[in-house]
Prior knowledge:
binds flavin-adenine dinucleotide; three-stranded parallel beta sheet; 17% strand; alpha+beta; binds iron/sulfur cluster; globular; 11 helices
Amino acid sequence: MKSFTYERPGTPAEAAAAVAATPDAKFIAGGTNLLDLMKLQIETPRHLVDVNGLGLDAVEPTEEGGLRVGALVRNTDLAAHPRVRKDYGVLARALLAGASGQLRNKATTAGNLLQRTRCPYFYDTAQPCNKRRPGSGCSALDGVSRQLAVIGASEACIATHPGDMAVAMRVLDATVETIDAQGAARKIPIAEFHRLPGDDPARDTNLEPGELITAVTLPKPVPGTHIYRKVRDRASYAYALVSVAAILGKDGTGHVAFGGVAHKPWRVEAAEADLPKGARAVTARVFADAKPTHENAYKLKLAERTLGAALNQARA
Length: 316
Ligand SMILES: Cc1cc2nc3c(=O)[nH]c(=O)nc-3n(C[C@H](O)[C@H](O)[C@H](O)COP(=O)(O)OP(=O)(O)OC[C@H]3O[C@@H](n4cnc5c(N)ncnc54)[C@H](O)[C@@H]3O)c2cc1C
Ligand code: SF4
């Protein structure tokens, strides 16, 4: 690991200003992703701004009947929160499908949204990778791509967003709240938070340098059966090959987002009108523009079957 300096500011505005003012500075929350990347020298910040003491760890009801989740709320605490368990079951289930108990005790809401891809070449510093070293090339295009994106990818990068929580937040239409170095607040709909790779895959999100996540707001609850189904290589402690976050009625109407298939949680709202017709009709529209590699075309059938299982679960 490269040496770095460290500070613990007292307010969100001070934290944002500290990162903006210092070259190669980064926020650190639970550290479960950032520290691993620093040990591998994939991330080499020269200054860390610790956001753990900023008082961003409350879960509070909103005036609109929703829930405001502080950026520092731990994944374990969020999954166990009575309102989340009662009204946002898809989120509780997605959180509990991720990582391990120990990791969830440290991992935060903001850090989880910002976790980096698990593309094997991103971690192999001997290989070209446009996300890690812009302009070096993409080793996955002609390499091992079984885990990687089937839709929304580019010639520069076919990585996926690896998280579970963000897929549930996408189906819930969450909003990410931030503050910048000048103290200005901003609200970013979750649909616009993560980016597609395009020709700049080094940028995972639309956050500006130094912009601090302060909270994620959930709108008022959506009725229906809340389902999160995650298909992976092992029964636990593995990332999604495909996941489905769904809120469904017994008649099959509802909402659905897919994980493990793109650089961001993947949702096509217009296709949800076809949910009562069944999984094949929906996935045909959701994945109409898919361009799988020779290794990951299986994900298209897997997505259809996983949604089919969710629809059966909702009808039962
Ligand atoms: C072995 C292992 C297995 C895992 N399995 C899964 C899994 O199955 N599913 C899953 O979803 N996740 C999984 N994870 C990922 C885990 O969920 C993330 O590491 C964790 O959520 C990151 O949160 P953190 O608070 O530790 O973030 P950190 O590591 O502290 O930070 C991550 C990034 O977020 C930035 N950041 C942190 N807070 C803020 C803020 N408030 N504003 C702006 N930027 C901020 C940091 O600068 C950094 O770039 C796994 C991790 C490990 C190590
Ligand atoms: S898919 Fe993206 S992360 Fe993976 S090697 Fe290519 S550029 Fe790097």
